[in-house]
User: Fold Nucleic-acid-binding protein from transposon X-element from Lasiodiplodia theobromae.
Amino acid sequence: MSADEDYGGGFATVGASRRAARLHARQVDYHALHTGKPTGQRKARPTTASEPPTNSTLDDVIGLLNAIVAQNDRLTERNEELGDEIRRLRGALDTSEEKRAKMEERMGKMEKQIAALVEMTRRNLSSQSQINATYANVLRGGPPTPANSSPASSAAVPARANHASVSTTRIMPPVIELDLNNTNVGSVSPGDIRARLQTALESQEATMEVKCCGITRNPNDAAKVRVFLRTEEDEELVRSNLGWLETAFRGARIRGQQWHPVKVDNVNKLAILNDDRTTVRADASEKIGSENDVEVTQVRWLSKPSNRLYGSAVVYLAKKSEADALLARRVIDVGGEAAYTNVFEHRPRPKRCFKCQSYDHLQFRCRAEERCVKCAGTGHREDGCSSSTVKCASCGGPHRADDRGCPKYRQLLEDMLRQRDG
Assistant:
């Protein structure tokens, strides 16, 4: 067997392992392959280009070959390491690309959801601002002016004042008023009254879910208590099921249902007033209620007597929700014409008896003789007065009894305002 067959097998192919080749290169003994005589035994002769390499030259070549083989081993190992690193980086890059694609897809979905949420919020705010206007919302602007309004009708629409205090007094939950004079609770604290009230409500099956939001006492009469509730449904339940009242405050009385006023401007007098243009028709409440699909309990004229065809009135409604709805619409139909709703500001005024024209009592309690509001004469009313004299029945001055410039009226009004403001 030849040396090639011994160490190389003689049958090596192109696909043989690189490691096997390197191992073979290390195991070859190049000194043994040299069959010539040692250099020292040869006949000395001049060196020419055709002379075979010496022993030292062969050692140098063998050393170089071994160095090349070792360097090749290191490069091969480094190449394999770099290949593994490249594969690892390529895998990480593929993973990053996949994560980035998923992140972009998720961000796209989030952008669509945010856009839909913003649009929904915008629609809700738009509808809310149109529907749920309250007394405070209405105070910020004035009533719309019709394009085809006449000078008389335009003059009848007063400018809106910014009454900040009105919004705080009008925006409140439903309330009921109790008269506790016959229950001996004058010395009981408001907290104890509320606790007794809530316990009584929960003891009745019909009112067990009703919650009291709070109570207030009349500063001038501690037995007069106002009870605030959450909704109008709770108020209706409390008023229609009075078992709680007997349980908590035997002998107490509950005041009638509260009315909610709305001021109405640009009202045609012919639509709600009688022929004398001073008193409201008996059927005015029913007509306004049917025109606007609300429950109107009372209508009262506000404007001073004049020749103007349009003026202002106050409409009292049974439900606060209906009052808020009219204020939100800003328009109400009165006799087929559009009038403008506004917040009604209650101003304390001296109460005058329409029978004797005095300021110390009301008509239903009057036992005095009837007097004319124009001439202060007795035994007749203004519609039957034939006198040309103008005299106040209250102070005796040269003016009508309903004149708000009356010294008696002004003095009483100042006293009322001073007492209210404390």
